[in-house]
């Protein structure tokens, strides 16, 4: 991937995809929810009420997987 993608309203750069891949490889015990929470925290991705945009982030992760940019852990 080169350049910038916008998924779920979030700009993603090559470095962001690499971050996701690194988090997945460094934390194989994490599920999708834990990964999503960590990304929301790092990106400070919150809604108007200040809550993390966890569902939007999980949808973003699914779209990245469907585009063959990442491989998510199996659903639990």
Task: Provide a short characterization of the protein structure.
The chain is mostly helical.
Number of strands: 2
Q: Roughly what percent helix?
A: 40-55%
Strand content: 5-15%
Helix and strand element order: EEHHH
Please state the average pLDDT score: 94
- The total domain count is 1
* Largest pleated sheet: 2 strands, antiparallel
Across the major sheet, the strand order is: 1-2
Rg from Cα = 12 Å
How many individual helices?
3
- Write down the overall geometry: globular
Helix/strand structural class: mainly alpha
pLDDT < 50 runs, ≥5 residues: none
Cα-to-Cα separation, first versus last residue: 29 Å
Provide the descriptors you would attach to this structure in a database record.
single chain; 76 residues; mainly alpha; two-stranded antiparallel sheet; 3 helices
């Amino acid at each position: 991937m080169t350049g910038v993608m916008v998924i779920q309203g979030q700009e993603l750069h090559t470095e962001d995809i690499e971050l996701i891949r690194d988090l997945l490889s460094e934390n194989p015990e994490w599920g999708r929810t834990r990964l999503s929470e960590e990304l929301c925290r790092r990106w400070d991705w919150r809604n108007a009420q200040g809550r993390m945009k966890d569902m939007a982030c999980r949808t973003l992760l699914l779209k990245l997987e469907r585009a063959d940019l990442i491989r998510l852990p199996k659903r639990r």
